[in-house]
Amino acid sequence: MLVEIRDVHKRFGGLEVLKGINLDVEVGQVICIVGASGSGKTTLLRCINHLEKIDRGTILVEGKMVGYRVGRDGALREESDRATAAKRARIGMVFQRLNLFPHLTAAENVSEAPIHVRRVPAATAQARGLELLRMVGLEEKASQYPHQLSGGQQQRVAIARALAMDPKLMLFDEPTSALDAELVGEVLETMRRLAAAGMTMIVVTHELSFAREVADRVVMMDGGLVIEDAPPAQFFAAPQHPRARAFLSRLRAANGAQGSHGSAPTRDER
Amino acid sequence: MIFDIHVFLDTLFSRVFFLPALTTLWITLAAMALGIVLGFFGALGALSRWAPLSALVGLYVWIFRGVPALVQIVFWYDAVAEITDNVINLPALVAGVVALGVIEGAYMTEIIRAGLISVDPGQRDAARALGMTAPMAMRRIIIPQAMRVIIPPTGNQFISMLKTTSLLFTIAVPELFARATAIYSENFKYFEVLCVVSLWYLLLTTALTAVQQFVERRYGIGPTATGGPHRGVLSRVFGFGLPQPGI
């Protein structure tokens, strides 16, 4: 098991955002987390690499807690910044907001962490960075700054940047939600290739066609709980929970109104 | 009124202001260095989630930004010696640099704090998610971006500081204005001497403006960064300037 999430609770002030989450992810699996905004999807993702603290429960990645250690009295303590950072380095993350480092070129964005966190020799990291940029189809943009790239290109650089640390696990937090519709496809395509290459991925998304096509399991969150956890065929054909059914029909209506975006061709296009 | 052109030119081209100008510049740089260091730690303290620390920084800014510089200068030079029974008796130059540096720290706390909070919190998240420790994220990701906001007002502070050093004539620091007072109290040519010393101050502020512009260009701030027409140091000072080669 690569990720084990047990009874995770998280509150922001008076608002309990996660109310006891359980989730397992095996090596090589792609898990898509769907749900209405405010259901706790993003918070759960940020708890996995300890960008947020958790109030109760445990999250194990490769069998180890991220951000916590067991104290001498058996209680959980926050571990040192350095120890957490080292564990985070093995967990890639791509955010909803486009947050490449604006003061660095695409190539520098990709090689920054290998050079300064991993202490890889600069030449090695730069060569590997170019290779990764080629993989996401942006080798010719290596010396451009983020503001010179489209949103879709920025997200592909962000994927390359995360991959440069050789992660065991990739977290995607609505990576296409901030993009114009016509740029969504290129990002999903990159993610699809990554999944096909065997990367373990947890993807928070509203792109149901992507979930249907790529996910091993679709997890639906609602009100801080997992209410549905099933293979996509089962999830889309026969969701068990009434809220899941309501959510699916709402999203389908919305997608129908906008026309299908995302790269999966509709029946007409085929 | 007769403007004594001979006194003016003699004073202008004598070397009497050379060393005092260096002293003024030296004090400015030292006080700003102290202020920037204090301001950096002040900003970190102000942004700390630990309430007593941010309250302490608030108190520091409130006091040292709120009390007149002249009061603080005399405090460090005379009052400190008095209340410590001469155990701490700072030389005038040291007292002056400390007084101005501590005041500057209060202003720089606010400037650097504004710079740090101007950086999108997502940048910190992205840096941390890549395995950077908090200090590394600060040094390599946050501060370089905060510089765009920090540098322009800091340039102002340098120029303001250069002029504020003139207050140190009250504790007999041999800077530009102290030298001017010594000269005009001998020859009574107040206006001529003030004209000369003003020219010295303008020379120094012009030099600082050029340095500021160089630094801004290095950090990609200003008209060139947004693709607007480039303006050289002459145009910054006078509102017009020579065309810049190659742009």
Q: Can you tell me the CATH superfamily of chain B?
A: MetI-like
Number of helices of chain B: 10
- Looking at CATH, which topology of chain B would you report? MetI-like fold
Query: For the CA atoms, what is the radius of gyration of chain A?
Result: 19 Å
CATH class designation of chain B: Mainly Alpha
Report the C-alpha radius of gyration of chain B, rounded.
22 Å
Q: What about the largest sheet of chain A?
A: 6 strands, mixed
Largest sheet of chain B: none
Query: How many strands in all of chain A?
Result: 12
**Which stretches of chain B of 5+ consecutive residues score pLDDT under 50?**
223-231, 243-247
Largest interface: A-B, 30 and 19 residues
Keywords:
heterodimer; A: 270 residues; alpha/beta; six-stranded mixed β-sheet; four-stranded antiparallel β-sheet; 9 helices; 12 strands; 37% helix; disordered C terminus; B: 247 residues; mainly alpha; MetI-like fold; 10 helices; 0% strand; flat
Describe this structure in words.
The complex is a heterodimer of chains A (270) and B (247). Chain A is 37% helix and 24% strand. With 270 residues, chain A is α/β, with parallel strands linked by helices. Chain A has a domain at 99-167. In chain A, the strands form three sheets. A six-stranded mixed β-sheet of chain A has the order 8-9-10-3-11-12, with helices on both faces. The N and C termini of chain A lie far apart (39 Å). Mean pLDDT of chain A is 90; it is low at 259-270. With 247 residues, chain B is mostly helical. Helix content of chain B is 74%, strand content 0%. Chain B is built from ten helices and no strands. Chain B has helices spanning 5-13, 18-46, 51-66, 69-83, 92-118, 121-129, 134-164, 176-187, 190-218, 233-238. In chain B, helix 2 crosses helix 5 and helix 4 (69-83) crosses helix 5 (92-118). The longest helix of chain B has 31 residues, at 134-164. The radius of gyration of chain B is 22 Å and the shape is flat. The relative contact order of chain B is 0.13. Chains A and B meet through helix 2, strand 8, helix 3 and helix 5 of A and helix 6 and helix 7 of B.
